[in-house]
From TrEMBL:
<dbReference type="GO" id="GO:0033202">
    <property type="term" value="C:DNA helicase complex"/>
</dbReference>
<dbReference type="Pfam" id="PF13361">
    <property type="entry name" value="UvrD_C"/>
</dbReference>
<dbReference type="InterPro" id="IPR027417">
    <property type="entry name" value="P-loop_NTPase"/>
</dbReference>
<dbReference type="InterPro" id="IPR000212">
    <property type="entry name" value="DNA_helicase_UvrD/REP"/>
</dbReference>
<keyword id="KW-0547">Nucleotide-binding</keyword>
<dbReference type="GO" id="GO:0000725">
    <property type="term" value="P:recombinational repair"/>
</dbReference>
<feature type="binding site">
    <location>
        <begin position="27"/>
        <end position="34"/>
    </location>
    <ligand>
        <name>ATP</name>
    </ligand>
</feature>
<keyword id="KW-0378">Hydrolase</keyword>
<dbReference type="GO" id="GO:0005829">
    <property type="term" value="C:cytosol"/>
</dbReference>
<feature type="region of interest" description="Disordered">
    <location>
        <begin position="657"/>
        <end position="678"/>
    </location>
</feature>
<dbReference type="InterPro" id="IPR014017">
    <property type="entry name" value="DNA_helicase_UvrD-like_C"/>
</dbReference>
<dbReference type="GO" id="GO:0016887">
    <property type="term" value="F:ATP hydrolysis activity"/>
</dbReference>
<dbReference type="GO" id="GO:0005524">
    <property type="term" value="F:ATP binding"/>
</dbReference>
<keyword id="KW-0067">ATP-binding</keyword>
<comment type="similarity">
    <text>Belongs to the helicase family. UvrD subfamily.</text>
</comment>
<dbReference type="InterPro" id="IPR014016">
    <property type="entry name" value="UvrD-like_ATP-bd"/>
</dbReference>
<feature type="domain" description="UvrD-like helicase C-terminal">
    <location>
        <begin position="283"/>
        <end position="559"/>
    </location>
</feature>
């Protein structure tokens, strides 16, 4: 026990050694809340609690991974459940799928899958979208799920127009999902919460099994999450939660601050521990954070203090424009590295929206600085990756209509929209999955013979693929690519984008499959792989091992820490986001978001804004964020841009935009925009009404990530073999496939492609030479 508590303060040790009974740890950033969670688990294990009796829940896979790493240091190899809420619910639902009308191999729809499913449901429900856009309908349904409102209850509500339309779509949407044996992201929580509510025997079984539940970042739980942990902590109320109300930043997806503020009311016998000391940041950084957050009215005041040594002053810097900002930041990073003060991994750059990272990427790349972006163009969202995943989904779950619609004519096989429409109508009428309908194509008399034949041959292809379902994931994927002639399709359609290479992405997906096979030699099922992919969240794939600068949104930064932090574009209309400015509560959430950003920094921090910023080709004059005027400038280094030139001396007022309407970014902040026009708790029947439900907030999205797979040095390395050196007969080495011989070279410039036959398994692969990680062993030929 000494080993576990020796590096803890008295208050931390008090929380760590508390085993039975509810526990609330409420404390500011960097005070060791997450550390307490892991130490407490280790302590419980040392006191004889069995590992399978404990579950530690959090919000990002990265945070869960970190907990796991820390626990492994204290108590190696213990099978304690640690993971995200969504993963937890996904796994429980596999066990209890039939209780909610699903089969065990159900699919998890991602954002774009859900969107297509929603479109279809809106069509099927026959509602008009003139008063409510599909987004508004989706958002209202998502809200309802977050508040555990069933379709029946929603239909009883009157309310605003978009809601009554949504109420008609909701049951149809749910029915179609069930028919497809699929759930959307909200459903994971919703179904599981409903299941616990409606099945007392399951509830008490889980309550008894998982005697010790812990939740980190409890301030971000929504009603569904609250209901879930509460239901599992009735007979054994050993629920321990940690949180910081000042870091609640997920109101837009239904998080309810009251869940933490009222914990003491929910569990009157609770033991509350406050941690006072910050171990993360310098006093300078804390002072800035503290001054800022004091401007929120809805909070309990608390002091942040630290015994850490003074560091550099926090810098507040103005730039001419976004480009100068990007260049200067990249230069600053290079300078600090050259001075031997830091390495790339020490730096993080945070922004309000993903779109803002573009010029930074450029600047970092130009200087050969390695970086990774954790942002909204997730690898798994790329077209070619989604195509192949859709095949896998359909192989795993033949009822997955969204996947079927994606692949039925990809690669193109002359199955046009009309045919698909008729197929869908037949499926809807017969209440069968579309694949089943395709099998019965000859019964669809609205369809031409030719179309029926095409469908039949698609079904034949499908059956061939499905036979491979039990092979290793790698084999399955390679077989799939080959059978569908997918690479040829990519080559034919010639999609070549500046920042992505489709064929390389296919290779990357194969690598992911190989990796998955390797990690799961025994239990690696297709279903498990798809689940993992579906649940990848924003901070996943975040490699500590890679020594890179990290670019990410403020939302994704929660819970993490970095020695050196830049927060860019602290500007009016961006932070606070213009859609949040009208509403006091939302404005306070924006302030908390900046607070979260500031408190990630350990030693060094710079906040910046520009005089002008170009967005989608438009240059706009910038007003600095109101939050900057709330900071203790006297204690900061305030550096204004030296240049006086101002393009907007004339007519500046006219060119100033009302809003950033053109800035459209499918990232969390945008969700805040979604229609919320009032508090509807009044129309929720009594049994569902929770005294703590405050403003339900719009739809959650699945946050996503991209790792910039090619580091700057990869892209810039001058010692690359010129593409012309590769020819038929050249012998090459690939890091994964081993040695092989080029059998064919086609295309020019960046499209130059080589077919390689690998000696190990005689498989043939196609690579774009500009991107492939090849080593030229022998040029071959003369
Ligand atoms: N007693 C301690 N002694 C030494 N280091 C500590 C102690 N407590 C916490 N730390 C360190 O302080 C840093 C912040 O801790 P931790 O991440 O647990 O804080 P947190 O309260 O979870 O922060 P956040 O609110 O941002 O999630 C970590 O690097 C942690 O290892
Ligand atoms: Mg933490």
């Amino acid at each position: 026990m000494d080993a576990i508590t020796k590096n803890l303060t008295a208050a931390q040790a008090e929380a760590v050694t508390h085993i039975d009974g509810p526990l609330l740890i409420i404390a500011g950033p960097g005070s060791g809340k997450t550390r307490v969670v892991t130490h407490r688990v280790a302590h419980m294990l040392s006191q004889g609690v069995r590992p399978w009796q404990i579950a530690a829940l959090t919000f990002t896979n990265k945070a869960a991974e970190e907990m796991r790493t820390r626990l492994d240091l204290l108590a190696p190899g213990q099978p304690v459940w640690m993971g995200t809420f969504h993963r937890f619910c996904a796994q429980q639902l596999r066990r209890y799928a039939s209780y909610v009308g699903l089969a065990e191999n159900y699919s998890i729809y991602d954002m774009s899958d859900s969107k297509s499913a929603m479109k279809r449901a809106i069509q099927a429900a026959g509602v008009s979208t003139s008063h409510a856009t599909p987004e508004q309908i989706a958002s209202a349904i998502s809200n309802a799920k977050n508040r555990l409102i069933t379709p029946e209850i929603m239909q009883q509500q009157s309310g605003r127009a978009s809601d009554s339309v949504a109420a008609r779509v909701y049951p149809v949407y749910q029915q179609q999902l069930l028919l497809a044996n699929a759930v959307d992201f909200d459903d994971l929580l919703y179904h599981f919460a409903c299941l616990l509510r409606e099945n007392p025997e399951v509830r008490s079984e889980l309550d008894a099994k998982l005697k010790y539940i812990m939740v980190d970042e409890y301030q971000d739980t929504n009603l569904a999450q609250y209901a879930i942990v509460r239901a599992m902590s009735v007979d054994h109320p050993n629920l321990a939660v940690t949180g910081d109300p000042d870091q609640s930043i997920y109101g837009w997806r239904g998080a309810d601050l009251n869940n933490i503020l009222d914990f003491e009311k929910d569990y009157p016998s609770v033991k509350t521990v406050r941690l006072e000391q910050n171990y993360r940041s310098t006093p300078n950084i804390l002072a800035v954070a503290d001054q800022l957050i004091r401007h929120n009215r809805r909070r309990k005041a608390k002091e942040l203090y630290t015994e850490n040594a003074d560091g550099d002053n926090v810098i507040l810097r103005q730039y001419e424009d976004g480009y100068q900002e990007a260049d200067a930041i990249a230069d600053e990073i290079a300078a600090q590295m050259i001075a031997g003060q830091a390495e790339p991994r020490d730096f993080a750059i945070f922004c309000r929206m993903n779109a803002l990272t573009r010029s930074l990427e450029h600047a970092l790349r130009n200087r050969g600085l390695p970086y990774q972006i954790i942002n909204g163009v997730e690898f798994y969202q790329r077209k070619e990756v989604k195509d192949l995943l859709a095949y896998l989904h359909l192989i795993n779950n033949p009822s997955h209509d969204v996947a079927l619609q994606r692949v039925i004519n990809t690669p193109t096989r002359s199955i046009g929209a009309t045919t698909v429409g008729r197929l869908q109508a037949f499926a809807d009428a017969e209440r069968i999955p579309m694949l089943e309908a395709a099998r019965r194509a000859s019964e669809i008399d609205t369809m031409s013979k030719r179309a029926q034949t095409m469908l039949k041959s698609f079904v034949t292809l499908y059956d061939r693929l499905r036979k491979k379902a039990t092979a290793s994931l790698e084999d399955l994927l390679r077989f799939l690519v080959e059978e569908t002639k997918y690479i040829e399709f990519l080559e034919r359609t010639g999609v070549e984008k500046e920042d992505s290479n489709p064929i390389a992405n296919v290779d990357e997906l194969v690598s992911a499959a190989v990796e998955f096979d390797r990690m799961h030699p025994d239990d690696g099922s297709l279903e498990a792989f798809l689940e993992q992919v579906a649940l990848v969240s924003d901070t996943d794939k975040f490699e500590d091992s890679g020594n890179r600068v990290t670019l990410m949104t403020l939302h994704a930064a929660k819970g993490l820490e970095f020695p050196r932090v830049f927060v860019i574009a602290v500007e009016d209309d961006l932070l606070p986001h213009y859609r949040s400015k009208q509403d006091d509560q939302q404005l306070e959430e924006e302030r908390r978001l900046l607070f979260v950003g500031i408190t990630r920094a350990q030693q060094w921090l710079q906040l910046s804004y520009a005089k002008r910023r170009s967005m989608r080709g438009d240059i706009r004059v910038v007003i600095p964020s109101m939050f900057l005027s709330e900071l203790p400038r006297a204690d900061m280094n305030v550096i204004e841009s030296q240049t006086d030139r101002d393009f907007f001396d004339d007519g500046a007022d006219e060119s100033y935009p009302d809003s950033w309407d053109l800035v459209q970014e499918p990232s969390p902040p945008e969700q805040a925009e979604q229609e919320y026009k009032g508090d509807d708790t009044s129309v929720i029947p009594e049994i569902y009404r929770d005294p703590f439900v405050s403003k339900p907030k719009p739809k959650r999205t699945k946050p996503t990530i991209t790792t910039a797979l090619q580091t700057a040095s990869d892209l810039l390395s001058s010692d690359r073999v010129p593409l012309g050196a590769y020819r038929e007969g050249s012998v090459v080495r690939h890091p994964e496939y081993g040695d092989g011989t080029i059998t064919e070279v086609t295309g020019r410039g960046p499209k130059r492609t080589a077919k390689i036959r690998f000696s190990e398994d005689q498989s043939e692969q196609t690579f774009r030479l500009a991107f492939a990680k090849l080593e030229l062993l022998d040029t071959g030929g003369d």
